[in-house]
Specification:
With about 425 residues, this protein is an alpha+beta fold. The protein has 2 domains: about 210 residues, Thermophilic metalloprotease-like, CATH 3.40.1830.10; about 180 residues, no CATH class. It has 12 helices and 19 strands. The chain has an 8-stranded antiparallel beta sheet with strand order 13-12-11-7-6-17-18-19. A 6-stranded mixed beta sheet has the order 1-3-2-4-5-9, with helices on both faces. The longest helix has 20 residues.
């Protein structure tokens, strides 16, 4: 998932896909159905909805609205997601209205995303996102629930078209960031689907329990851990990340702002604005955009997926904070490399370091894949880093999960062999 701070709802207007060169790419539809709160969804659509998740959806909706997003009377709230989560979306809309907010619900679908590239002329890929920009100037809050169902949905779409669509939507993300729109995103690369469960080498029911357990983590405990890690990271100078797979990277973080995604946008976060007013659920991350031009070394990713095809031994080499070479193997590497080559200026810049702190999210020991939030996870990447307090606005990025890593901060262990030491 590439974090470009572009809400899924507005991607409908600006045709901006969240393009991510990583496994569980969460593609948002560039054309969606916008409804008001009295919308009627036909019976055939609701039949595609999944069985109810193991969580109280009314309680979750209330928490998303009042705690995570902090919706207030008069707020304009953009709500988006797919038919499978219609009950949750309806509950979110109602809870927004209960506190005096004004909700706008948009339904996304894989079918509309697919039909866009199949039927809409390519000349419109780069059109000005007029509606998206208007919505960005109106909204106070966005709440998005991941809606992607199919793996490799856009595998047959050229890298050039994807890049054009992403670039066209970039101004919308910038507008949301500039206006400090509060953003709550549910999914975070873990939303339980059959294909994602296979990637993590877990049963889908097991992944579902892991996901919702991560969403339900005690926020006060998570916040306390996050603040401890933040304080240590903020006081540090150089990070040294190593992994038995050959990863050996040094990067400086001295003086850089550090952020905690604990699932709640607090009044203090609202005062800071920018990257501080976005949360990702399941929550549990501490991250920063390092000192520019300081990343040196290499990052090795054992196993990844792009467009549903496996990538093996992806190796990214950095010098002076810039990606200087990329190698890999497997059936997905060629398309992955093509997507990278098609992206614009800023694609090669080292972007962020992210540390997972959520104790409720435990992935299968057999899996070589990672995710942002498990306690002790280390994630790095290139490209867009506005969500982490940086200034690279490109609507593209590479995300590299490094399970089992060790992080030394000024010679002291912060993470050791995948275990958080705080």
């Amino acid at each position: 998932m590439n974090r470009t701070l572009v809400p899924a709802l507005c991607l409908a207007a600006c045709v901006a896909l969240q393009l991510a060169c990583q496994p569980a790419t969460e593609t948002t539809s560039p054309a969606t159905t916008t409804t008001n709160t009295t919308a009627n969804i036909n019976a055939s659509a609701t039949e595609t909805a999944r069985k109810a998740p193991p969580i109280d959806l009314e309680q979750l909706a209330q928490r998303l609205v009042t705690q995570s997003a902090g919706v207030k009377e008069g707020d304009i709230v953009l709500v988006s997601g797919g038919v499978r989560d219609l009950e949750l979306l309806e509950n979110i809309v109602t809870n927004v209205e209960k506190v005096g907010g004004h909700p706008l619900l948009t339904l996304n679908s894989d079918r509309t995303a697919k039909k866009y590239f199949a039927e809409v002329p390519e000349k419109y890929d780069s059109r000005e996102p007029k509606l998206g920009l208007r919505l960005a100037e109106m909204a106070n809050v966005t709440i998005n629930v991941d809606s992607n169902e199919a793996e490799g949905l856009l595998a047959d779409v050229t890298a050039a078209r994807r890049a054009a669509v992403a670039k066209a939507g970039q101004p919308v993300g910038e507008a949301f960031l500039r206006r400090n729109v509060r953003q709550v995103n549910v999914g975070n690369g873990l939303y339980p689907t059959s294909w994602r469960a296979k990637h993590f080498e877990m049963a889908e029911d097991e992944l579902s329990r892991t996901f919702w357990g991560g969403v339900n983590v005690d926020s006060s405990s998570l916040q306390a851990t996050g603040e401890k890690v933040k304080a240590v990271l903020a006081a540090g100078n150089e990070m040294h990340i190593t992994n038995p797979n050959g990863t050996d990277l040094r990067v400086r973080v001295q003086g850089r702002p550090v952020f905690v995604s604990d699932g709640i946008i607090s009044p203090e976060d609202m005062q800071k604005g920018g990257a501080a007013v976005s949360v990702y659920l399941p929550a549990g991350e501490v991250y920063c955009a390092p000192v520019p031009n300081t990343a040196e070394g290499k990052v090795v990713v054992n196993r990844d997926f792009f467009d549903g095809k496996e990538i093996q031994n992806l190796t990214l080499t950095f010098a002076g904070g810039k990606l200087t070479s990329m190698t890999g193997s497997g059936p997905g590497f060629e398309a992955f490399k093509a997507a990278h080559d098609a992206a614009g200026e800023g694609k090669d810049l080292f972007a962020f370091v992210d540390l997972g702190i959520n104790p409720n999210v435990r992935l299968s020991p057999a899996s070589k894949l990672g995710n942002w939030v498990p306690a002790g996870m280390v994630t790095v990447g290139t490209g867009n880093n506005t969500w982490a307090g940086g200034d690279n606005k490109i609507a593209y990025g590479i995300t590299a999960y490094l399970p089992g890593s060790t992080v030394m901060l000024d010679g002291k262990p912060l993470v050791e062999n995948g275990t958080l030491k705080i």
